[in-house]
């Protein structure tokens, strides 16, 4: 069972002094930062996790559609500015211990082996990484164990080679999803059990409820970075890992030469404090990591910290995404937990598609309050009734890195996001193929809603890794080219976005960094 929050309170710094010192300061407790702290828990180094938010409260509203979606109870990010439309929006970016994983869908597929190489797409080329799949493979396996990943080896023809099997079997399909799976197989496709980070181990607390995707788990049975990484790190016998919550890092300062970060300037409950460390790791998420580096401009780093290449904030990617609702008006969908399916038959170029199209996976069961966000004029009783019949899928296509797709700061220091979507033709082709599949499976009505710039859950690419300091921000080992003691451990380092969820790749990169000895 999961470690309760009360069991780690002794490692939480409640009343920090004006100057707090440590060996390693990790800024951010999400999938990258939390997993890195876990990897370092027995290293002998003193580690301080710095988190802008607090532990997300365990309360009945965790599982309330109305509280979560109608009232946005847990949305606590400052608004971002969409430079394309001129509108402000509140992103799906969450400041809690565990970061945005507290409300993520817990689907943890590995990147395909080909995703680390150059790939030709309809709108351009997806660049190669400076590391290979083989470099990450053992750390993928370790992360799957850490986050309780459930799936079945051999079902997905695009699944890359693995040295270890999934630690737990896939979650069975149910309701309308089971009908779709059987029909898809008859149509010659290869639906598979989507890798899910759930505590369905013997004695585990997961009850396979409606409220997993976009909800916090009331019973701590979702493999998020808080439950599966931060709390185990804090509870380690060494006692070397501490956590500072409610601490917003406003900038990083360097020494006179500009080669070493010396201090993180922090607002802790409205009070300024400093954290001084020998080594710093930024793991705030692709947008907020870029923003922090840009805010840390100085005489030695006039364009922002670690930004001699002018690549910080550029190459923003977030997947091209669509909610896909298949409806059989004759039969209700009796599925409770329907995030069990994945389809990758068009992930790569093939006989029926010249270019890669993307990934299809199950979406958490929609209800009226969620549908209301896309159909605000439709009365709630109608939406409540319609969603009883929907089979809900999530369709995503790889987004390409463009220099003009970027994170910047306005005059007030607020985040501005500029993005032009790529590979839209491939995405629409994938939607068209899935319409044929679901209609043959007995779902004649299809509704779709494409997500725009506000869909930030798969953000990546704003501080890319590479071997050339002139065109990248960090090297293949995640250390900033411009500094001797700064690393970045989140999805901002991704050179490409692939077309599957990025979380476990971020975790694998952090485990690789933690095991390298570079931070000790």
Could you describe the 3D structure shown?
This protein is of the alpha+beta class and 520 residues long. 20% of the residues lie in helices and 20% in strands. It has ten helices and 21 strands. The chain has helices at residues 31-39, 65-70, 133-146, 175-186, 225-234, 286-295, 368-374, 380-386, 424-440, 503-516, and strands spanning 19-27, 47-50, 80-82, 87-89, 119-121, 124-126, 149-150, 192-193, 196-197, 241-244, 247-254, 261-268, 271-282, 320-327, 341-343, 359-362, 390-397, 406-409, 415-418, 445-451, 486-488. Strands 1, 2, 10, 11, 12, 13 and 21 form a seven-stranded mixed beta sheet that branches. The chain has a six-stranded antiparallel beta sheet with strand order 8-15-16-17-14-20. It is globular.
What is the compact description of this entry?
By secondary structure, the chain is of the alpha+beta class. The chain is 20% helix and 20% strand. The chain has helices spanning 31-39, 65-70, 133-146, 175-186, 225-234, 286-295, 368-374, 380-386, 424-440, 503-516; strands spanning 19-27, 47-50, 80-82, 87-89, 119-121, 124-126, 149-150, 192-193, 196-197, 241-244, 247-254, 261-268, 271-282, 320-327, 341-343, 359-362, 390-397, 406-409, 415-418, 445-451, 486-488.
Assembly state of the chains shown: single chain
Helix content: 10-25%
pLDDT < 50 stretches: none
The count of β-strands is 21
Mean pLDDT: 95
Shape: globular
- Structural category is alpha+beta
Strand % is 15-25%
Termini gap: 31 Å
Rg, Å, rounded: 22 Å
Number of helices: 10
Most strands sheet: 7 strands, mixed
């Amino acid at each position: 069972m999961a470690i309760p929050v009360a069991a780690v309170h002794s490692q939480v710094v409640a009343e920090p002094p004006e100057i707090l010192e440590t060996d390693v300061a990790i800024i951010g407790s999400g999938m990258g930062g939390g997993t890195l702290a876990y990897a370092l828990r027995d290293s002998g180094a003193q580690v301080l996790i710095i988190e802008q938010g607090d532990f997300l409260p365990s309360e009945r509203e965790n599982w309330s559609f109305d509280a979560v979606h109608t009232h946005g109870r847990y949305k606590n990010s400052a608004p971002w500015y969409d430079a394309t439309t001129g509108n402000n929006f509140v992103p799906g970016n969450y400041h809690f211990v565990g970061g945005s994983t507290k409300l993520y869908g817990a689907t943890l597929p590995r990147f395909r082996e080909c995703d680390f190489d150059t790939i030709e797409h309809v709108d351009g080329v997806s660049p190669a990484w400076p590391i290979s799949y083989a470099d990450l493979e053992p750390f993928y396996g370790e992360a799957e164990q850490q986050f309780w990943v459930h799936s079945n080896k051999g079902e997905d023809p695009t699944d890359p080679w693995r040295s270890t099997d999934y630690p737990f079997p896939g979650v069975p399909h149910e309701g309308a999803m089971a009908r779709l799976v059987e029909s898809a197989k008859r149509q010659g496709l290869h639906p598979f059990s989507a890798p899910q980070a759930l505590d369905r181990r013997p004695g585990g607390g997961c009850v396979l409820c409606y409220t997993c995707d976009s909800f916090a788990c009331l019973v701590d049975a979702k493999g998020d970075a808080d439950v599966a990484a931060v709390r185990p790190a804090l509870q380690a016998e060494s006692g070397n890992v501490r956590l500072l919550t409610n601490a917003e890092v406003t900038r990083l300062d360097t020494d006179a030469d500009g080669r070493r970060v010396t201090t993180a300037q922090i607002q802790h409950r409205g009070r300024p404090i400093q954290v001084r460390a020998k080594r710093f790791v930024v793991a705030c998420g692709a947008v907020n990591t870029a923003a922090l580096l840009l805010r840390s401009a100085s005489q030695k780093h006039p364009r922002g910290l670690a930004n001699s290449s002018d690549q910080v904030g550029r190459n923003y990617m977030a997947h091209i995404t669509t909610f896909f609702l298949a409806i059989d008006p004759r039969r209700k969908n009796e599925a409770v937990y329907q995030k069990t399916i994945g389809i990758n038959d068009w992930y790569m170029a093939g006989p029926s598609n010249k270019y890669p199209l993307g990934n299809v996976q199950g979406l958490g069961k929609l209800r009226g309050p969620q549908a209301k966000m896309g159909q605000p004029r439709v009365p709630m009783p109608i939406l409540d009734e319609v969603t009883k019949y929907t089979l809900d899928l999530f369709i995503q296509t790889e987004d390409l890195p463009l220099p003009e797709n970027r994170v910047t700061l306005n005059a007030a220091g607020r985040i501005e996001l500029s993005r032009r979507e790529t590979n839209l033709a491939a995405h629409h082709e994938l939607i068209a193929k899935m319409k044929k599949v679901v209609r043959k499976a007995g779902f004649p009505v299809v509704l779709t809603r494409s997500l725009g710039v506000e869909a930030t859950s798969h953000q990546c690419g704003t501080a890319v890794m590479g071997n050339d300091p002139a065109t990248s921000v960090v090297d293949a080992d995640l250390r900033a080219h411009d500094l001797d003691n700064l690393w970045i451990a989140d999805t901002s380092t991704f050179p490409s976005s692939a077309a599957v969820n990025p979380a476990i790749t971020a975790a694998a990169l952090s485990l690789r960094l933690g095991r390298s000895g570079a931070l000790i």
